[in-house]
Input
Amino acid sequence: MQKTHHSFFRGIRDELPILVGVIPFGMIYGILALEAGLSKAEAQAMSFILFAGSAQFMLVQLVDVGTPALVIILTAFIINLRHALYSASVSPYLKKLSPLWKMGLAYLLTDEAYAVAITHYENKEEKGYKHWYFLGAGLALWTSWQISTAVGVFLGAQIPSSWSLDFTLALTFIALLVPAIKDRPAVLTAFSAGITALLTAGMPYKLNLIVAAIVGISVGLWSETR
Output
């Protein structure tokens, strides 16, 4: 029991530095969701059900510009495809868990929780209790995301625009991305996706991000096979 608690709270502790960027991110989402025409209940429900910050941001922007439903669904699907890669990456460490544990951790498998968990798994010799570490990191993120979304939804009008909270979004993802670029496939993936996004920036409905994701994944897979 002591080791279980230790792993759980260590996961929470290791997730805390990332929350500095996640909290403003959630507040901005809440504000943008209302501006896009969602009700307060709908905006909060999306955070609870979908629980995928980048997808939520993209979806509310697409709703705001009147994007067809089929494009919105396709966009959400493609943006969240990366979670399949995350799942494949952590599965060797969690494959012996019960189906209930796997379903719970799958719900909590986000960019920030994955980044903390996989770094811990790869650098530590800890035996067992890895799922409790993941649970701690994931719940810390989930809780902060729900609260920050609620703050944006219910108190967004009180947040001064001079705070420029949107800048924290870029900083958060840069902080997650840079440490993960450790080998040639990762470098080629990041470079090709970034260049593609810039070259196709004029596409409607922000489809350039979908194209960039497809190109980045394809280049990364090609590089891995080499």
